[in-house]
Amino acid sequence: MRDPSLWRNLVYAARVLRLNPGFTAVAVLSLALGIGANTAIFSLIDQVVLRPLPVWQPKELVMLDDPGTNPGANHGKHSFSYPMYRDIRNHNDVFAGVIGRRGFPASLSWGRGTARIQGELVSGNYFEVLGVQPYIGRLIASDDDRNGSASPVAVLSFAYWRRQFGDDQSVVGKPINVNGQILTLVGIAPPGFFGMEVGRASDLFVPMLMKAKMTPGWDGIENRRDMWVNIFARLKPGVSPSQAESGVNVLFHQILQEEIKDPKIPANWAFKDAFLTKHLYLLDGSRGISSLRENFSAPLLVLMAFVALVLLSACANVANLLMARGAARQREIAIRLAVGASRRHVIQQLLAESILLSLVSGALGIFLAWWLSSALLSMIPAQPNALTFSTKIDSRLLFFTLGISLLTGLVFGLLPSFKLSRPAMVPTLKLEAGVGRGAHGRFRKILVVAQVALSLVLVIGAGLFAQSLYNLRVLNPGFQTDHLLEAAVDPSLNSYPDDRALALFEQLQQRLANLPGVASVSAAEVAPLSGFSAGQTISVEGYSSKPDEDMNAAINLVGASYFATMKIPVILGREFTPRDIKGAPKVGMINETAMRYWFHGANPIGHHFGFCCEGKIDIEIVGVVKDAKSKTVREDIPRYVYLPYMQDTNLGLMTFLLRTTQEPAAVTGQVRAALQEIDPNIPIFNVQTMDAQLDRSLYRERMLAMLAVFFAALAALLAAVGLYGVMAYTVSRRTSEIGIRLALGASRPNVLWLVLQDVIWMVAIGIVIAIPLVIGLSRLVQSQLYELKSSDPRTLLVATALLGCIAILAGFLPSWRATRISPTQALRYE
Cα-flanking dihedrals φ and ψ of residue 409, to 5°? Predict the structure, then answer.
């Protein structure tokens, strides 16, 4: 049943706020900015970090992980070989079901040209274990994924089906061409299901045993030294994660004992003990797997702390406004108390106004959150239609906004309500001047000091992130990014065999080199600063590794003249030439870091290395190059090995790099045309300048810096408004005193300085409080900085000076205006 007193309080509060439109507008806008910012950041945190997968009982899912030494090729974190997946699936006694998955790029043809999409290889029990039901048709089943009889079937995601086929149900049951293979489309996945990789949509699902056909040139199904499968499992009823982990590790170590007998692992391999004692961990699988989560979790949590401080500053601002308006309402409150109203009823009435203000602000904050979320998502680079993050306002977001709005109303309303409900009764009823100026004035100054402190923490944080971004942006990555264009092709997705793909690459490189304005051309399997890397365990001639030593090195396949095109200096030996082809002696190059590590600075030219599981050390080192960034600008440069792609047997994606004598964007159309002339069915993608790729690689730092500066500016503005309000109120209460001083001969500068002392003291106390806070919170932001300490004195000094100037200017304006009043007018003020 509705409480009539509560309803009366809300109705009265609405009338009071309506009669004070200026106060209401300022308070609502201040709070809406804080609530909207918190809601927007929470929306992304919810989708990236908190929200479970849209599957049946997601809390029962675990993800398997075995950190440590793995001889062979490792294709990303949390990866296992397919035989390992198969052994765990078939022989465990703690899981109700075990599934495997792997994302892969796909080229889909459907009578409307060719599109590059994101596919996912899934085990036959994938949808069954997840409890996912089809929207149309059927999903992949175990019979579709059996050895020797993998059915050429596929399932489309609901979003891609709707986007590409416009809800046409007749496509189910018809053939589609994926990577040159004809598959039967048997069903459509349900709305909202995008696979197991959170934040990145899988448009297509294919049985895992079709991998050799979906990833031409790379099979890996029976290779125990090829780690590429992500394994998820559903716990049996009544089995806890710790019990399951203990149980599955018994099986895991039995498998390792058999794997160590693999002839691909050298008998004298130094990591045997570490390999056999590895532990299999069961991680929370309810939220899937996500590289974006790893990249964005820390920045989003830092931003959440930022917006929480902004909201606190907004609460302090509104509390200040309530105190200022309360001074004018003290007689009203005193009369209500005098005629019998209890103090509890007065507090309830004042809190009703605060809660109503916060709810209205929350409603406006929802719209601001939608706008800010859209801006945030636009900063996250991705392939078209790859992101699954949404700006939709769902029930979780509405509950969060409602909760934070109510909490905000209590935070900024409670203390002012208690203070305003205890007026000095007799002086107030007699309308004596200056009532309430002492306690209320001190409380308002305390609020301003808190705002200054919070704002300075944010301004310093924003300065640190901006300086860190600048450090990264001007950092020399080891090659020249200007006048460099990249464009990627993958003929393997169009069923090109290796020999034909190699011929295509050679032909395309010649055509690109002959384009006007192109100085040199080369190619690389892994594009610079793309965020990707590949690595393998290396054996080096004459180098004896320790039992626990990491011998992995990053690897890239590159073309002739790669280092000349990238302008990476070759400091010893030579770089690859067109003569380094299949049948020629195997050659490789290493970077300075690898030379220092394996050869201790000695000349490595003529020495050999090999890959651990191939059992040969037959690749001759013919050159050493300067260190250069590869995966990201932030990375510590690893040991790096370069191989000529012309000697490789598994050719797939290749990124061509063009050094131009004019603006790179000017030759983009000619690059596309060159490929179209050779084969119009092969899509070309990731066509962009290297400067654009550099900016793209810094999206996380740029987002953090931009939003931190925006929120810090907002907090500084709120602090300035609060300080201006306090000083305007203080000056208005001291107008008579100022008039007397001016009448007695005080100069206007002396009076101005007298008033400004309050401003300086409030700012100084805020600074004294903020600096220890910044130092104490330094650990939270240090990991997000680059070549910069969180206690950087220059940033602290500049931020403090900037906020101090803003605060003093805000306090100076009402003080200066007071000194312009004539003494006669000031003496008659009260």
Answer: -60, -40
Kindly report the backbone phi and psi dihedral angles of residue 190, in degrees, each rounded to the nearest multiple of 5, phi listed first. Answer: -70, 160
Report the alpha-carbon distance of residue 620 to residue 609 in Å, rounded: 7
Closest CA to 281 of 80, 468, 508, 575: 80
Residue 2 has pLDDT above 60, yes or no: no
Partners of 284 in beta bridges: 62
C-alpha to C-alpha distances, 773 to 38, 139, 264, 510, nearest whole angstrom: 21, 55, 56, 60
| 0.90 surpassed by pTM | no
> What is the rounded (10 degree) CA torsion for 510, 512, 517, 519?
-60
Per-residue pLDDT of 646-685, as tens digits, reads 988 777 889 999 999 989 888 888 888 888 888 877 778 8
Q: Which of 174, 60, 188 is nearest to 135 (CA)?
A: 188
Instruction: Give how far Cα 629 sits from Cα of 529, 633, 768, Å.
Output: 7, 6, 41
Angle at 138 between CA 136 and CA 140, to 5 degrees: 135
Residue 146 corresponds to which amino acid? R
Q: What are 659's strand-pairing partners?
A: 484, 520
Residue pair 487/495 in contact by the 8 Å Cβ criterion = no
Alpha-helical runs (H) found in 474-591: 498-513, 562-566
What residues are paired with 304 via a beta bridge? none
| pLDDT at position 761 over 60 | yes
Residue 687, classed as helix, strand or coil, is strand
Coil, helix or strand for 702? helix
H or E stretch including 141?
none
Closest by CA position to 35, among listed 357, 391, 308? 308
Q: By percentage, how much of the chain surpasses pLDDT 90?
A: 28
User: Cα 295 vs. chain centroid, distance in angstroms?
Assistant: 5
Q: CA-based angle 807:810:813, to the nearest 5?
A: 145
DSSP-assigned states of every residue in 259-320: HTT-TTS-TT-TTHHHHHT---EEEE-TT-B-HHHHHHHHHHHHHHHHHHHHHHHHHHHHHH
Residue 45 Cα distances to 348, 389, 523, 696, angstroms: 35, 10, 38, 21
Q: Residue 745: which residues within 8 A CB-CB, separation 6 or more? A: none
- Dig out the tokens for 641 from the structure: 């090995």
CB 539 within 8 A of CB 614: no
What residues contact residue 355 under an 8 Å CB cut-off, 6+ apart? 13, 406, 409, 410, 413
* Pairwise CA distance, residues 373 & 37, whole Å: 9
What gap in Å lies between CA 654 and CA 640, rounded to an integer? Answer: 18
At residue 47, does pLDDT exceed 60? yes
In this structure, the number of other CB atoms found within 10 A of the CB of residue 148 comes to 5
> What are 693's two structure tokens?
């790729």
Question: Half-sphere exposure of 158 toward its Cβ, with a 13 Å CA cutoff?
Answer: 14
